[in-house]
Amino acid sequence: MNTIEAIVLGTVQGLTEFLPVSSSGHLVLFQNLFGLKDPELLFDISLHVGTLLAVLIVFYREILDILTALVQLPMRLKSAGGMMRLIQVDPSIRLALLIIVGSVPTALIGLLFKKITDQLFGSPAIVGGMLIVTGTLLWLTRRIRGQGRPVARTTVKDALVIGIVQGLAILPGISRSGSTIATALFLGVDRKLAGRYSFLLSIPAIVGALVLGLKAPELATTIPLTTILIGALVSAVVGWLALVILLRVVDRGQLHRFAPYCWLVGLITLGISLIG
Q1: What is the count of structural domains for the chain?
Q2: 113, 171 in Cβ contact below 8 A?
Q3: Dihedrals phi, psi of 175, to nearest 5 degrees
Q4: Structural domain boundaries, residue 176
Q5: pTM, two decimal places
């Protein structure tokens, strides 16, 4: 792999990881159109580290508030008069609880069905169909009007449902960001919170996937370290830009604008499957 290829793959990863268009769907499409091979595992992990860095940069204030609240938990428990009361009055603690609760079904689905979903990556027909499903979910959000519920009124049940949807996003062609944000909106969650929660919820999922990847035996690589670092840097910068754009789109209630693109790519992918 050369530097140009690393820049291209880093750009694709940064864009499709956060924009609601399915990074897995684009991977399958690119592989079938141009005969590309899967990038070596270490390089693939470096690209995901780049996008994780983008999330940490954009949401550093929220992450810092949550970590501070957890460190001060004993003191806050005493002043609030119990855990249930603290969850009700402290938005950072409540958000931390919602992230933990939402991460549980994601982890279970990922661990139980990973082998099955890995096999589906070789099926453009599955990817195309799931991209069309993603586009439909995004399109349906256009009907959502009015102000949603803030974090103080977002429930554990909401977090579980969103976490299950995030787990199902391991299906190639289902956009993680698009499906989780759309689900949060369908549940009546405030738009800004829906975007924030979706990407804060992605942090444990990305970290967990990276930890499992680092244990894999296929980490040996022939790619120069400089090329790997360039790919990761491009992924981080492009991912940061895509994340900022998507949050603005969600805040304006325009998530459905990505639907036609998902439909188009889904139909193209289905066409490739028929030709193949």
Answers
A1: 1
A2: no
A3: -75, 125
A4: 3-275
A5: 0.90
Q: Which two tokens stand for residue 119?
A: 């096999």
What Å distances lie between residue 117 and 189, 265, 267, CA to CA?
Answer: 29, 20, 21
The pLDDT tens digits of the residues spanning 99-157 come to: 999 999 999 998 888 777 767 666 778 888 999 999 999 999 998 877 889 999 999 99
224-254 confidence digits (pLDDT tens): 888 889 999 999 999 999 999 999 999 999 9
Cβ neighbour number for residue 119 with a 10 Å cutoff: 10
Tokens of 198: 């979706």
187: its two tokens? 């549940």
Burial of residue 84 (number of CB atoms within 10 Å: 0-12, 13-18, 19+): exposed
Collapse the DSSP code of 149 into the 3-class scheme (helix H, G, I; strand E, B; otherwise coil) and give the result.
strand
Burial class for 60, CB neighbours closer than 10 Å (0-12, 13-18, 19+): exposed
Helices 60-71 and 73-80, packing angle to 10 deg: 70
- Residue reference for tokens 């684009």: 26
